[in-house]
Write a structure and sequence with these properties.
Jelly Rolls, 12 helices, about 675 residues, about 20% helix, alpha+beta
Length: about 675
C-alpha cells in the first residue's frame, strides 16, 4: 500500500513538472529568486535593484533591444515635474548628465541611453536572456511557480526554456506575463461613469485635430466613392462612452542633419502615396504652414540628432491601426509593428519627395537622414514601437482621474507622477461630413501626486507573487499621466524592493509592510547603503524660513510649489533653507531655479557652512533650461558641512531688479 502511494506521488510530481513546461532533451529550468520579464528601462532598474539587494535575478527580453523607449528614440524625456523622479531613475538621468558634462540631462541620443542602462547591468553582473517570449505560466493556486519561454525568432518546442522563481515582475509595455498568469486587466477606455471621471471614454477635442473642411472621401463630396486611407466608418459615440479602442502608437524618430553621419531617407518597400491623401488635403488647406515643426514635434537632441513626435492633425501617429495590438498573438503584433514602420518611413519620404508638399518643406526634409551610428543592428531604425498603452491591470487599487487631480490621495505611495493626463488620438472618423480625429486629451495643471503600491499588485486571489510596474492598475486617463519612462523606472525599483521583502518575509506581495518599503526607498534610494542626498524644498516649513512678501506659485517649479517676489517689489526679503546634515563631509550644493517672466538679472545668495559664510551672485542668463521642464539646478559649489543644522542657503530679494524665486536646494554628498 505504501509503495502504491509513493508511486502515485511520483507520477503526480512528474505530471506537475511536465505541465511546468519541461521537455525531455530541453535545457534544465532556470532558477532565480526574482524573474523580470521585459528589459525595458523599468526592467533594467528592477533587475539591478533586486541583484544589489542580494537576490538572484533572471532578466528576460522577448526582443533583441535593451531599454524600451528610453533607448528607442524617446530622448525628449516626459518629466512633468523633476520632483517626482527619485531613486535610481533620477540616478540614470544624472549618469546621462555626466556623459554630456552636466549635473542632469533629460535629452539624449538613443545609443547613449542604451550605454548607461547596460552599465547598470554590468555593475550588477546581469546577463539578459534575449529573444525569449512567454508562452505559458504555471500556477499553484494563486502563486506562479514557473513560466515557459520560446525562442522569439525561431519558435521550436525543443528549445523552450522554463524559468522557476519566487517572485515575478512584468516590466513589458504589453503585460503578457500578467495576462498568462490569469490576472484581470482592461484594454481601451472606460466610460466616465465607471470611475466617476470626466475625461475618460470618447472625447472629441481640439488638440491634434484636423481643421474643418477636410473631405474624407476618395472623391470629394461623394460618400459612395469610399473613405480615404486612415479614416474609419465607425460612428461618433456620445462623449464619455467607453470602448476597447487604444490610443495611437508611433515611432519616436531619430534623424540626423550631419552629412557625415547620414543615411538618406529612401522610398520604403510597399510605399503607397494613397496613405497620405488626407495629409495632402491638409497641406493644401493650410498653405501658410511651411515648416517641419508645423507637422512634427521636431525636438533637437545632442550631436545634431532628433526625437520627432506627433503634432497636429496628421503626423507620426498611425491613428486607429493598433486596436488589435494589446491582445493580439505574436505574429499579428509583428504585422502591426511592420505596418507602423512602413507608414512612418513612408511619411518621411512623402515629405521629402511628393510634389503636393511645398518646396520649402521638401527641401527642409531632405537635409535630414537616418543616423549611421544609431540602431546599427536594425538598419538605423528603432526596434521599439512606442506602445503608449496596451493592457492595464485591474489590481488591488485602481488609479483614476481623482488621484491625478489630488482629489483622492493614497497613503501607500511608492512613487510619484506629475505629467498631464495625456491621451493621443484613438480613431479618425467622419463627423458632419468632415474627417476628424477623436480621443486626444491633454489636461494638466496639477502637482506631483503619489502612486499607490496597491496599483502595482494584482488582487491577492488572482496572484500572490507578481508585480506590474508598467501595465499597472489605472484607468485609461490616469494611465495617460503615469505612463512616462522615468516614472516606470521609479515604480520598477519600488516593485523590486517589494519583491525582495516578500521573499525575505515569506509572504505575498500584497502583505508586505508598505511603511517599511517606503522607508527603505527613502533611506537607501540608490541601493548602495550610502548617505542619500538632502533635499530642502520650499514647502518644507520645518527647514525653511521666509522673511518678507513672497507669493506661492503652484505651477512650474520643483515639487508642489515655489516662492517668488513680484517684479517691482523693493521691500526686500529672504528665504533660508536649513538642511539637517546626517554626517559631516563635503557636499555639492545645487539651487533649483524655475524660469519666470521678468526675472531679476542677478540673484543674491549666501551659503553658511559651519562658522563660515560665502556670498554668491547668480546671473539669470547662466540658468539654461533644456527639455520638458521649466527650471534647472544651478551648482553653487562644494562645501564642507558639519553634522546637524549649522548650515544653510539664503536667497535674498533685496536690491533685485525683477522677480526673484526660491524653490528648492539640494545637498549631494561628494562620495557620489
Amino acid at each position: 500500500m505504501m509503495r502504491k502511494r509513493i508511486a502515485i506521488a511520483q507520477i503526480a510530481c512528474l505530471a506537475a513538472f511536465l505541465l511546468s513546461g519541461f521537455r525531455f532533451g530541453a535545457e534544465s529550468p532556470v532558477q532565480a529568486d526574482v524573474c523580470i520579464y521585459g528589459a525595458t528601462s523599468a526592467g533594467v532598474i528592477a533587475a539591478y535593484t533586486a541583484k544589489k539587494m542580494g537576490k538572484t535575478v533572471v532578466l528576460i527580453e522577448p526582443g533583441g533591444h535593451l531599454g524600451g523607449m528610453t533607448s528607442g528614440g524617446l530622448g525628449y524625456t516626459d518629466i512633468g515635474n523633476k520632483y517626482a523622479i527619485t531613486g535610481l531613475s533620477r540616478d540614470f538621468y544624472r549618469r546621462i548628465g555626466k556623459h554630456y558634462g552636466k549635473f542632469e540631462q533629460w535629452t539624449f541620443e538613443p545609443g547613449v541611453a542604451k550605454k548607461y542602462l547596460q552599465q547598470y547591468l554590468d555593475e550588477a553582473g546581469i546577463k539578459v536572456l534575449y529573444q525569449s517570449r512567454v508562452i505559458s505560466a504555471s500556477k499553484s493556486g494563486a502563486e506562479i511557480k514557473s513560466i515557459v519561454l520560446e525562442n522569439s525568432l525561431k519558435p521550436d518546442t525543443k528549445s523552450n526554456r522554463t524559468i522557476v522563481a519566487k517572485v515575478f515582475l512584468d516590466c513589458t509595455y504589453e503585460g503578457d506575463l500578467m495576462a498568462k498568469a490569469g490576472v484581470k486587466y482592461a484594454v481601451g477606455r472606460e466610460a466616465n461613469a465607471d470611475y466617476n471621471e470626466t475625461i475618460n471614454g470618447v472625447q472629441l477635442m481640439k488638440g491634434h485635430q484636423l481643421p474643418d473642411g477636410i473631405d474624407p472621401y476618395k472623391i470629394a463630396g461623394k460618400p459612395e466613392s469610399g473613405l480615404v486611407w486612415g479614416v474609419s466608418n465607425d460612428k461618433l459615440e456620445p462623449n464619455g462612452t467607453g470602448d476597447k479602442k487604444v490610443q495611437a502608437y508611433n515611432y519616436r524618430i531619430c534623424l540626423t542633419s550631419d552629412p557625415g553621419n547620414m543615411v538618406p531617407i529612401t522610398k520604403p518597400d510597399g510605399y503607397d502615396p494613397a496613405h497620405f491623401e488626407l495629409l495632402a488635403r491638409l497641406i493644401a488647406r493650410q498653405p501658410e504652414r511651411k515648416t517641419l515643426n508645423d507637422y512634427f514635434i521636431w525636438s533637437k537632441m545632442p550631436n545634431n540628432k532628433t526625437d520627432i513626435n506627433n503634432r497636429n492633425g496628421f503626423s507620426t501617429d498611425m491613428i486607429g491601426m493598433n486596436h488589435d495590438y494589446p491582445d493580439a498573438g505574436y505574429k499579428k503584433r509583428e504585422e502591426i509593428i511592420k505596418a507602423h514602420e512602413s507608414y512612418t518611413k513612408g511619411l518621411l519620404y512623402f515629405f521629402g519627395h511628393d510634389p503636393r508638399v511645398p518646396s520649402e518643406l521638401r527641401e527642409a526634409m531632405l537635409k535630414w537622414g537616418y543616423p549611421k551610428d544609431e540602431y546599427v543592428e536594425t538598419g538605423h531604425w528603432s526596434p521599439q514601437l512606442y506602445v503608449r498603452e496596451a493592457r492595464r491591470m485591474i489590481g488591488t487599487y485602481v488609479m483614476t482621474q481623482a488621484n491625478c487631480e489630488g482629489k483622492e490621495v493614497v497613503k501607500d505611495g511608492v512613487g510619484m507622477a506629475a505629467y498631464t493626463m495625456d491621451s493621443h488620438n484613438i480613431q479618425r472618423i467622419v463627423v458632419n461630413g468632415m474627417a476628424k480625429n477623436e480621443g486626444n486629451v491633454e489636461v494638466g495643471g496639477f502637482g506631483p501626486y503619489p502612486i499607490a503600491y496597491g496599483s502595482l499588485v494584482p488582487k491577492e486571489k488572482e496572484c500572490t507573487n507578481l508585480l506590474v510596474p508598467v501595465c499597472l492598475s489605472a484607468s485609461h486617463i490616469a494611465y495617460g499621466s503615469i505612463r512616462m519612462e522615468p516614472v516606470f523606472m521609479v515604480l520598477a525599483q519600488s516593485s523590486a524592493v517589494a519583491a525582495v521583502m516578500a521573499i525575505d518575509s515569506k509572504t505575498s506581495v500584497q502583505r508586505i509592510d508598505v511603511a517599511k518599503l517606503q522607508a527603505r526607498l527613502k533611506t537607501d534610494p540608490l541601493v548602495n547603503g550610502l548617505v542619500p542626498e538632502i533635499l530642502v524644498d520650499n514647502d518644507d516649513t520645518k527647514h525653511v524660513a521666509v522673511k518678507g512678501e513672497w507669493e506661492v506659485v503652484k505651477k512650474g517649479g520643483y515639487g508642489p510649489s515655489f516662492l517668488a517676489t513680484k517684479e517691482n517689489d523693493r521691500n526686500g526679503g529672504s528665504v533660508t533653507f536649513t538642511p539637517e546634515v546626517p554626517a559631516s563631509g563635503a557636499y555639492h550644493i545645487y539651487v533649483y531655479f524655475p524660469k519666470v517672466a521678468k526675472a531679476a538679472s542677478e540673484i543674491k545668495l549666501s551659503v553658511k557652512h559651519g562658522n563660515e559664510v560665502k556670498d554668491i551672485t547668480v546671473q539669470d542668463k547662466d540658468i539654461v533650461v533644456e527639455g520638458q521642464t521649466s527650471g534647472e539646478w544651478y551648482h553653487l559649489g562644494k562645501f564642507d558641512l558639519p553634522q546637524g543644522g549649522a548650515s544653510a542657503v539664503n536667497i535674498s530679494s533685496e536690491g533685485a531688479s525683477g522677480a526673484v524665486v526660491a524653490d528648492a536646494v539640494l545637498f549631494v554628498p561628494d562620495s557620489k
